[in-house]
Specification:
This protein has 5 helices and no strands. The chain has about 160 residues and is an all-alpha fold. The radius of gyration is 23 Å and the shape is elongated. The protein starts with 19 loop residues before the first helix and ends with a helix.
């Protein structure tokens, strides 16, 4: 085997992510567990009439746990999973309130949970959009192009 056919090792020189994105991952995970665990207990103990609200609360909680993993990972596929979770959360929230179903985490626009089912998808969507690597690279390239254009104009004017 020659040197060109051997796999090269890649070093990831990016710094680890800290800040509000990491805190948001924790909030998503805690909120998801706080909603899902009691919902699954209610689902196991409830009669036939209360299974739908408990099941919807369980879906809501699982959605937030998956969303926390998607926001933490921030890869291309996991970003798609994160967007899908956000859509499910928002559609579930609107559907439960349009139908008027009670007993779910989404009921009454999440007033039982301090309106977190309304706020967290909005904040999560902002995080997924702001942390999109493609958007960041595109903006950095635009800034570099503008900087190169300005420097070229300055150097040409000096001559």
């Amino acid at each position: 085997m020659d040197e060109s056919s051997q796999a090269r090792s890649l070093n990831d020189t990016r710094r680890p992510a800290h800040g509000w994105g990491r805190a948001l991952v924790g909030v998503f995970a805690l909120f998801g567990l706080a909603v899902a665990l009691p919902a699954f207990v209610d689902l196991a103990r409830s009669g036939a009439g209360m299974r739908l609200p408990a099941g919807l609360s369980g879906l809501c909680g699982v959605g937030y746990v998956v969303l926390s993993v998607a926001v933490a990972h921030n890869g291309r596929r996991m970003r798609r999973v994160g967007w899908a979770c956000l859509v499910v959360e928002l559609v579930g929230l609107v559907a439960v309130n349009v139908v008027g179903l009670t007993g779910s985490a989404w009921s009454a626009w999440g007033s039982v949970w301090w309106y977190l089912p309304v706020l967290l998808p909005l904040v999560g969507g902002a995080q997924l959009w702001l942390a999109d690597p493609r958007r960041i690279v595109t903006n950095a390239e635009r800034i570099t192009d503008i900087s190169d254009t300005i420097q070229g104009t300055v150097h040409r004017d000096r001559k």
